[in-house]
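Lecture 7 notes: from sequence to structure.
We start with the chain below.
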Amino acid sequence: MAIEAAHSQNLHESTFQKLRSLLVEGKIAPGSKLNERELAESLNVSRTPIREAIRRLAADGLVELIANRGAIAVELSLEDVIHTFDVIADLEGFSGELAANNISAATLSELEALQYEMLASYARRDLSSYYKLNLRIHHLINQAANNPVLSRLFSQVNARIEALRFRSNQDGVKWEKAVEEHQEMLEALKARDSKRMRKIMMQHVMNKRDVVVQLLKAEASSSEVAEASK
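Predicted structure tokens for the same chain:
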């Protein structure tokens, strides 16, 4: 019985993570409906873990549950995107400042190891692996701040723009800049330089915001041109 329960728990968790990756990596487009039957078939699971995953994703802010429509992948307006990035910049800046003051030697070692893995993913241009490691680094810094309220706020707000943060690295030059900024974060943490860490974290997020805004405006412009040519 215990083995069956553990297997069921692992299945539900793996289904959740796979579905989350589909949303973050844009394989389920913003505004799209999540079809339980199709997802169950593609992930080779029953509809029960799919339903649980959708509920968790809704709680995380990646999915909206709309009456008479079902589960829809979150689609933010340009204004929503800008406002969310502005909030995240402050949260990450504060998180980085506290982390520089509170981080342990063990956590610093873990961050260095993750940074090494992330650089290897960058060298392979493996964006999916890079992003997952990137997210772990940001969460670890946030945890090192040692403020549970801040951690909860960060997770809730960041979930709204995870897919956009993923896409912000698809520009080669901007991706390289983001990698450099991560190295600067590690150096600031090692030096226990809280002011520098806050500045780097905020600039890192604002750079991503600018890339995303430029990308969304370009897509909107292309869509308008396409509509006009019909």
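Points to note: Residues 174 and 207 are 8 Å apart (CA to CA). Residues 2-73 form a domain with the Arc Repressor Mutant, subunit A fold (CATH 1.10.10.10).
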